[in-house]
Structure to design on (1287 residues):
């Protein structure tokens, strides 16, 4: 694959890289980022090119494509990707771009097909991407094998599907092994999406992530969520109280007894898994704290599972309770526009209207998402001012934001292709 | 006329020219264009400056401005143009820009005026562009003759009106002489627009043209159109069958007998005229193949005229049947946005509701336009992906696309003001 | 305050400055501006940076924030500003940007607060900008005094509030002393906003101002306004007639008798104050010329006050009659988009529905604003054409436009940070 360099007409993107590298080299890692990181269109282009097109991204759930020919589509910036289940139950991903004149192949968000047929001139591809048919006459020297769909790296574990647009994706199997392990009680082959929401936040994707990575704002913003959630981020949160640690110890003993994983696991700053208790007596993120679905997930022995929190930078966080799970996917749409997709999962055999009411299930996170959207949008508007300058994160309340911002800074910095300035190299020795 | 160079604040447009020249010099002429040609905003600026502001463009029909003072307006990029019939039946065109402070003069799409009066301070221009009145006091040394409307080159033949924004338009009379000849049976002074449609396609203008220049997609996309149209592009289409050639021979004999021109005529790749049969027994592009208008056009002896197809690059294609004609005009609005105007013409004396039903007349091409819009929009979305790379045109199905793309490439290349790179000059010797 | 330079990622803004300086040095001061001044996005960035962020701008009326804790918000480009009445009746202004992570603090357009509390994490600021509370744990070395709100220069006189985003604002007290004097009969502490309108004009802000600075277009455009307004701009308008001068002399004698200021006062081209008569027998800018409010303003002795016209470049003009006043504020939104806010003021004790009908009060200027919007929008569309070139202003009809455009040109030129070219320096000696 040798696509045209996208910056062929943008002579100054190289200058942008150098300017961005310098800002990263000079920033205080406990302060928020300089303004251009949140609103500049060239910096956004770099975010897409060097982060979203090189990192493993959460795309969707494997339960959404249960059978051969099922597919879903995901748009990563201007790149349309098809994730499809092919022969032998294999999940594959391709660029949704016909090799003839470039039309998108799949127009719908999800569906089921026998082959992948281009709507324009009906070039037809096998589910594994091979070109099978290219009109009746492309000439004698036309080599069908050279025109298969361009593959996209895809990996699946614990019911999660990740894609990576890089040609040489970095390893992620350490995390995936753990993911598989933590999710095994949930029997992710027997799960379904009960209901889904898609909202657009007029804020840079990093503001959406920063907002998620702290609960400093929860007290002022999230009454519905605080019916169930305890603000402490995980079991080594520096603010946690003795009472909280007692609750945690008690719950962890219960979870150990029923062989449900709960230990805090980290993979750099990129991934984290940990099960933490909800408020004592509360079993689910619903308005009344009672289960949102009467049928528990997988082999879960009882509803009182707290929340298994799964973080995957740059684009996902998740809550798995006993009765249902909520998965979140973040996709940048522009420098100040981000799509947030939320899916509520229940046992495949749970019956809508009997075991669960989708309106009730979504209530807490619909409210919370909307509150977070407003916070992120006001954050964006303030940052757009010339008066904005990076401000200090609280090390006790916002360590999760610090971790995210530094993961981002290191990841982008490593991919900029710009040497550190000599002066700073010396300084850091 | 010495307008400010529009790139006075765009230092890097020169770099863009060089990059575009190199892409053109290196492309395979049987493959689709590199991505920036379809979505880059600077390349779009070049398309406007070097193609749409230098080529003869189809603007409208002379029957739309039948009498002195009738005008229509056309927007070519950000340039608003008035086409007006002046004294002695002369069609003239002007920039729709007041010489006082620059207001547009004509706000409506069409109309009739005695003089051209600016809505701002009522500066008043003769229909030939001369400034007649400039308020009551512009000072003693104000030279009225220096402030006439800026003229735009205009030519008319066979009922078609073409404009050219260049100060030194290239010759087009060869084509116009033929156009006049082919249209003479239609008596274009006695024609009217029965109905008109304007749709915006979210696709680059070249994708709209490419879509029109092949019928490879017709089978999969255009059931209504294929009620009447035969897919073969013209009489030397390499795919044509013996049966088709027999039909053609028979029809050509009929047309010769009634002195209606049908011969294939080409003017480079820019213009083509040819009359080709519709499906045997079908006389018009209507749902049932029967005439859309009971009164035939001009001196047309019978309805069975096939379709006189007229191509004018970069912005028009047309079908003239016995009972009615359909004319198409393409105007770029942005890198990924194009206006397509369709007009259905009938004999001036045909009576709406008696001789023709506008809803019935427009049915086939309304459906076809909408189908083509969707194809072009999906083509655009796929091309926007980093995975897009130029793909091969079929020489038997897409020779018309190859011709268009190469006409475009040669036209733009010649106007870029960049020398070919030495290496390539040698290579082509 | 040392915000990140906003052009850190725009290497070519320096080139733009040089190009703009050259265009300004070479323009004819009696002609309209070259095209980029009206539609180029980089030039718009310069307008914001060098004019709107450095000049005193009309923000609102002091009567809108009558008591401690009352605030209003104003958005100057991407800069959100709070104007708030603090302790001891003092009006203060701050950047509406939290020093923590940059959220906007005040989300509403106006309101009343005890403290300024950030909606995100509840950092709390005193009305004088001091940070009072920053969560429960920002660390031992956190210096609260370093994180107060960033102040914005603010001045108030005659009921008008002006803000200036520069750190070193230029003096304006000469004008403010006069403003206070001319407004004293209006007792601006006892005034209220009866009704307000906000319209967006799709035109560059300078076209909105140019439109306001002449009445050359009034005859063709403003029937409602011409029920009351005399077209002559002020008492030294070169077009004024003997009859007009008689009327003026008579009215000025009346105004002198009741000690109401009327003399023409100018502060460079930036400010002008002058009271001029309305049409004889007409006392207010209403459809029938009768008072719009039965209760006169302040200590005004009778309704027949003509109109006190107050100009403040770059963003305000105003009419103060005996019964009511109309104040106008212009804020650029983009290169071709401008917000125009109109407020109708009456005596604080006037009772809606009894003393005045808001619908009647706003009628003339609602109609006039809409007419001017259309003129400015058509002006913009014509100027966008490559055929546009600067046109001549009439020295007798458009001296006000010439003054505005030259004030703008000199103001921008002085702030560009580019030396005049040597050749031109010689030429001007
Ligand atoms: S673009 Fe897909 S078949 Fe032609
Ligand atoms: S702009 Fe046309 S008359 Fe003034
Ligand atoms: S951004 Fe204001 S308190 Fe956090
Ligand atoms: Fe939140
Ligand atoms: Fe088609
Ligand atoms: Fe006006």
């Amino acid at each position: 694959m040798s696509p045209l360099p996208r910056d062929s007409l943008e002579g100054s993107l190289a200058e942008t890289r150098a300017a961005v590298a310098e800002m990263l080299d000079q920033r205080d890692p406990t302060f928020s980022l300089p303004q251009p990181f949140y609103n500049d269109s060239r910096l956004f282009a770099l975010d897409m090119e060097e982060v979203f097109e090189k990192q493993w991204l959460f795309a969707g759930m494997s339960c959404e494509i249960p059978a051969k020919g099922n597919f879903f589509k995901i748009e990563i910036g201007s790149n349309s990707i098809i994730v499809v289940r092919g022969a032998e139950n294999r999940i594959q991903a391709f660029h949704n771009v016909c090799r003839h004149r470039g039309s998108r192949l799949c127009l719908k968000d999800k569906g089921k097909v026998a082959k992948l047929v281009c709507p324009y001139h009906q070039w037809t591809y096998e589910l594994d991407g091979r070109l099978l048919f290219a009109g009746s006459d492309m000439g004698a020297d036309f080599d069908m094998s050279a025109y298969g769909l361009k593959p996209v790296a895809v990996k699946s574990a614990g019911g999660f599907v990740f894609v990576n647009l890089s040609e040489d994706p970095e390893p992620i199997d350490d995390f995936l092994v753990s993911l598989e392990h933590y999710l095994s009680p949930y029997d992710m082959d027997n799960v379904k999406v009960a209901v889904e929401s898609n909202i657009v936040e007029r804020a840079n994707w990093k503001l959406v992530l920063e907002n998620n990575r702290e609960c400093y704002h929860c007290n002022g913003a999230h009454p519905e969520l605080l019916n169930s959630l305890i603000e402490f981020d995980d079991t080594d949160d520096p603010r946690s109280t003795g009472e909280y640690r007692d609750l945690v110890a008690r719950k962890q003993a219960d979870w150990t007894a029923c062989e449900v994983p709960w230990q805090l696991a980290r993979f750099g700053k990129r991934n984290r898994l940990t099960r933490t208790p909800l408020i004592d007596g509360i079993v689910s993120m619903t308005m009344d704290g009672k289960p949102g679905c009467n049928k528990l997930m997988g082999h879960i022995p009882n509803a009182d599972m707290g929340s298994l929190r799964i973080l995957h930078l740059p684009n996902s966080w998740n809550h798995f309770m006993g009765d249902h799970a909520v998965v979140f996917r973040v996709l940048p749409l522009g420098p100040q526009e981000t799509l947030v997709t939320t899916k509520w999962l229940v046992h495949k055999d749970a019956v809508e209207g009997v075991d669960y009411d989708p309106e009730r299930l979504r209530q807490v996170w619909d409210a919370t998402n909307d509150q977070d959207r407003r916070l992120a949008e006001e954050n964006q508007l303030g940052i757009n001012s010339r008066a904005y300058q990076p401000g200090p994160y609280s090390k006790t309340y916002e360590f999760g934001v610090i971790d995210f911002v530094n993961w981002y800074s290191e990841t982008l910095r490593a991919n900029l292709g710009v040497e550190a300035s000599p002066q700073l190299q010396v300084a850091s020795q």
About this structure: The two ends of chain C are 39 Å apart (CA to CA). The longest strand of chain C covers residues 191-201. Residues A 211, 217, 221-222, 368, 372 surround fe (iii) ion (ligand 4) (CB under 6 Å).
